[in-house]
Amino acid sequence: MTGTPPDEHVRDQVMIATAVMKAYGSGDGAVTALRGVSAAFTRGQFTAIMGPSGSGKSTFLHCLAGLDTVTSGAVVIGAVDITGLSRTRLTELRRDRMGFVFQSFNLLPMLTAEENIRLTGRLAGRRADRQWFDTIVDVLGLRERLDHRPAEMSGGQQQRVAVARALLTRPEVLFADEPTGNLDSRSGAEVLGFLRAAVDSYQQTVIMVTHDPVAAAYADRVLFLADGTIVDELAAPTIDAVHARMRKMEG
């Protein structure tokens, strides 16, 4: 990136990771999870991150999202290097500029679907745009479920509520960590289809960790990690192409 003239692609970069290293412990017992990982993420792009167990893919996602600290290197969103922020400022930035979807849904059981969707905005002291709320609810097919609590909904419905909550504040980046891991194939396809639509229709930037080639095929590109480094990248992935790359890595 150094010395590259500013063009549309560079100006549209939402998040950049530069030489990110992450080590746990110290001395002889230290474990290095990331070894100088660099990557750029562009507005309106869906990136999947894959790799064998222990490759560092979830660690990389957590460092990008500020959920884990880096040992060295930089993670920049917009013009802000999140690796130098205080805990309070980092919490505010995640709340205001990032969205999160996890495998375990993370809904509050005592709140209705609508209350869960609106929760992040209310914690930030912001009123959600009613038209955007209605758009998300209708596209995700949640209109008839807004008064239901999580225990009254299927896993797929709960994950759609989690996606709606993540998108309501129009985050600069949405992070998804195995978002279909607890879903059946039909429910998983519905969630992935909406993430794809959010990218195509609303220029949402999505970064997703997955082990599933079917899920990865919804992305614009796949970054493959092994032993804490990016070892391959695949544009316009297909299920067969992702399978082939994974077999090559694991063989």
UniProtKB/TrEMBL annotation:
Native species: Actinomadura alba
Keyword entries, A-Z: ATP-binding, Nucleotide-binding, Transport
The keyword RNA-binding is assigned to this record: no
A Pfam family annotated for this UniProt entry: ABC_tran
Gene Ontology terms for molecular function: ATP binding
Gene3D superfamilies documented for this protein: P-loop containing nucleotide triphosphate hydrolases (3.40.50.300)
InterPro entries associated with the record: AAA+_ATPase, ABC_transporter-like_ATP-bd, ABC_transporter-like_CS, ABC_transpr_LolD-like, MacB-like_ATP-bd, P-loop_NTPase
Signal peptide start and end residues: none
Highest taxon in the source lineage: Bacteria
Residues annotated as domain ABC transporter: 10-251
Protein name: ABC transporter ATP-binding protein
